[in-house]
Amino acid sequence: MPTTSAGHPLDGYVVVDLSTGIAGAYCTKLLADGGARIIKVEPPEGDPLRRWSASGANIAADTDGALFSYLACSKHSVTVDPDNPDDLLLLEKLLTDADAVVWSRDSRITERPSLTADEIHRRYPHLTVTAITPFGLTGPWSDRPATEFTLQAWSGGIVGLGRGSPDQAPVHVGGQVGEWLTGAYASAGTLTSKIGTSGSGIGDLIDVSMLETEILCLTYYSVSFFDALKRPFRTTRAASVPGVAAAADGLVALGCGTMQQWFDLCVMVGHPEWIDEESTLSITERANQHAPDIYAWLSEQDVAGIRDFAGALRIPNAPVIHGANATEQDHFRERGSFTKNPRDGFDQPASPFRMRPAVLRPPEPAPRLGEHTHHYRIGPGRERPPATKLRTGEDLPFAGLRVLDMTAYWAGPSCTHFLAMLGAEVIHLESTRRPDGTRLIAGVPVTEDQWWERSPIFSGLNTNKKSLTLDFQTDRGRQLLRQLVGTADIIVENYTPRVLDQIGLDFAGVHALRPDAIMVRMPGFGLDGPWRENPAFAYVIEDASGLTWLTGYPDRNPLEPYSLGDPNAGVHALNALLLALEHRTRTGDGVAVEVAMVDAALGIAAEQVTEYSAYGNTLQRDGNRGPTAAPQNLYLSADVDEFGRNDCWIAVAVATDSQWAGLHKALGGPEWALDPALDDAAGRRLHHDLIDTELAAFFLNMTSDSAVELLCDAGVPAAKVMQPHRTTEIPQLTSRRFYEQVDHPVNGPAAHSTTPIRFTDNIDHFHRAPAPLLGEHNLQILRELGLTDDEIDALQADGIMGTSPDR
Q: Which of 406, 422, 402, 414 is nearest to 460 (CA)?
């Protein structure tokens, strides 16, 4: 395989960025990393992100904020005054010459009727227009006010997987993660459209919903779980034990994702008598039962000793990372996980994925405001190649691609699932000795018939795929696996690094079998570095990247989000894979892709490192408050929840002065809110406790439905804190057909989430077939490899393949 770059995957691809905020900026950053020319169009006063600092750092008038400087690397800046006809002609020229537009509301430019997403798509049909909005462009809530915080509440992500303690309000995931995740999906949607519309001369309208993104990334297929098994995945909040714990010299993170890890933890803390293989209690219940003793033991040990002991026992563990200590970690230093900002010199994350050949563009300096305006004003227009084929709208973007899916759990399958929903043939490889672990996450007794087929989580991640079982620990299994690799366009795997290395199917081995194959490897901590062999569950990745640090209350240890480490890695792997496809299309060559889960997480936690390196400020968790709105918090309502508890909450976030005026009106014009000290955001933040006290008293006498209706009608972002299995009750999701009914042959029908993206062709059904039964396609796939029925029977007799787990 070539080791030198033949250009960047997106060379010649021109994107006009009409977005504001993190989501659009991160979308175009990922495209810029792939080589696209990004023309950021700003009003004369500039994108508000130029003045942004989450820590409130003082940004000099002639400089830009560190976050902007990071996200705008390698882009161009053009200023357009929407009230100036000559500037509008310049923008028309840019749109005529471009291939794609990334668009969001809330700017003086996109507020013009002629520059809505729909109108741009109508006037410039060659463009792919990627629109990023809170709820989507269509549906009854399309114009409803929202912030990332209120969308977390609607998504069920604030309750999520039972994060936190029942003695406090539930707590959101800190760090504006919904913005970053939505940006990653928007980039993937744009690249998907580029592939699907190639040569047609007709673009797409890519409609990306932040709400739907947060449902996919902050909840664990809770709707499918509830529909199929008639019980919620979680009913109470409980602290993860150990989770983040205090050691003698600092914080350390430990987790138990499997029963074996719980048994090993019992041994580590000196209580092997806690091991009870006959107990019916869950891992969480057992850990909480012994929490005082576990924490007492940990408090007497130092962090390094705990991590060494845990690592030897294969117990997931990590340091608790934040902005001040991230760049000091030996693993990140050895892997080059951070780099210097090319213009301003502060530390920033390196690319969230790596490729060989080195086809990604190294970051170039961010532009000063309007730096390239004159260049584009006087420059000649761009010649557009003629369309070479008509677009029928019948073919899905990835039709004709064969994907060998050697992944398990959540991160890898979520990447390949997107490909399967959009037309690829995806073969999900398991073995009867080690089925995909999500088949076991249902709490279904092993005495039940076909218990391994009952997991709604496996179902939610694997529709449209085929299932092949193959034990490649045997010589014959490895031989067949190599044959299968030779038929695949794409191989995706997320085993620990040593698994494929030991059988000669690393990058070099795969490309020897098929030189044009794209191989995506998704190790937790990467293929090299001191932490290479560390077990990597989502929560450990969150601990090791800073995502945990910003989640929780300031007077307690941080809380693991316990979800987004996996799907975040999945959507970044998807972006990397799509860039690799572009490279293969240009050159005919295969690509080796490494997407370490921790690198993807560092990418969306970037603000912590940039704030500390640029300004010396360590961002801190603050419960349900945050840097973008004040007041922002959860308030108890008068409702009783479905479990009989007084535990129903309203999310409120006031991000602008006009929203504050709307809140004042909705509350009936109370005297306390007229205090001049509350007239601006700084004053409201300073007096947040007072505002919280007043709002808590007001909402305590209202139902959550009536309170949210009152506030939204007044233009105030507000939401109910939804139980994640109840999001099917949101009319916006029904209107956009986010959930589809899938009839599983064992579980029966259940609602399944789709994608947070709607395409111009408005795909009727993303789920065309239920998740496969274990080994369901063994005969079909092995016959395609040339095996006779007798040979297949012999494989089954020898235990190399099968349709039920070995016990």
A: 414
**The pLDDT value given to residue 164:** 80
Q: Of the candidates 749, 745, 751, which has an alpha carbon nearest to the alpha carbon of residue 766?
A: 751
What burial letters (b/e) apply to 544-571, b meaning 16+ CB within 10 Å? bbbbbbbbbbeeebbbbbbbbbbbbbbb
pLDDT at 441: 87
The pLDDT tens digits of the residues spanning 673-686 come to 999 999 999 999 99
Return phi, psi of residue 641, to 5°. -80, 180
Chain centroid to Cα 753, Å, comes to 15
Report the DSSP beta bridge partners of residue 243: 254
Q: Which is nearest to 40 in space by CA: 86, 77, 90, 4? A: 77
Say how many C-beta atoms besides its own lie within 10 A of residue 749's C-beta: 12
Has residue 725 got a pLDDT over 50? yes
Q: Helix-strand-coil percent breakdown of the chain, rounded to 5?
A: 40, 15, 50
Task: Write down the pTM of the prediction.
Answer: 0.97
How far apart are alpha carbons 367 and 64 in whole angstroms? Answer: 10
Place of tokens 């973007």: 397
- Secondary structure E strands in 288-447: 317-319, 338-340, 347-349, 354-356, 402-406, 425-430
In angstroms, the CA 724 to CA 506 distance is 39
CA atoms within 13 A on the CB side of 453: 18
- Name the token pair of 717: 């972002």
Which of 222, 179, 155 has the alpha carbon at shortest distance from 71? 179
Query: Which two three-digit tokens encode residue 694?
Result: 């007043």
H/E stretch holding 749? strand 748-753
The answer to whether the CB of 215 falls within 8 A of the CB of 727 is: yes
How deeply is 252 buried, as exposed, middle or buried, from its count of CB atoms within 10 A (0-12, 13-18, 19+)?
A: buried
Residues in the chain: 807
* Identity at 337, one-letter amino acid code: S
pLDDT at residue 793, as a whole number: 95
Distance in angstroms (rounded) separating the CA atoms of residues 62 and 170: 41
Q: Which amino acid is at 111?
A: E
Number of Cα atoms under 13 Å in the Cβ half of residue 801: 23
Strands (E), 658-726: 718-720
